[in-house]
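Good morning C.,

I know you're traveling, so I'll keep this short. The sequence:
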Amino acid sequence: MDQAKKEHSALMEKFKRINIVNDQVNGWAKRVFGKFAALIDSPNLQPGTTDITKIFEGMNFVVCDELKRLIEKQQDDDEKAIEYGDVFTDFATEDFIAKNIRVRPVS
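The tokens, ready to paste straight into the viewer:
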């Protein structure tokens, strides 16, 4: 009986950890999906979607579509370099820097 309780306890702890990771992935995916939906006007991105598979399908569609457009642009402009300012429009803003760049304190 003690062995069964130990196994049950171990399974419940594993289930708890899996749920924590699932919640983290779900939260991240919903935030990314929301940003995609805000930036791109596409019928495949329906705000308020909560199904994780639909969220990843929508993100996959957007990423593949954007990569196709970049490839077409690169083929059209073989002699020109890609303007990364057009691709990464909101990169390295003050908000991004404040959230993502950490400065190590002086020891």
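Safe travels,
E.
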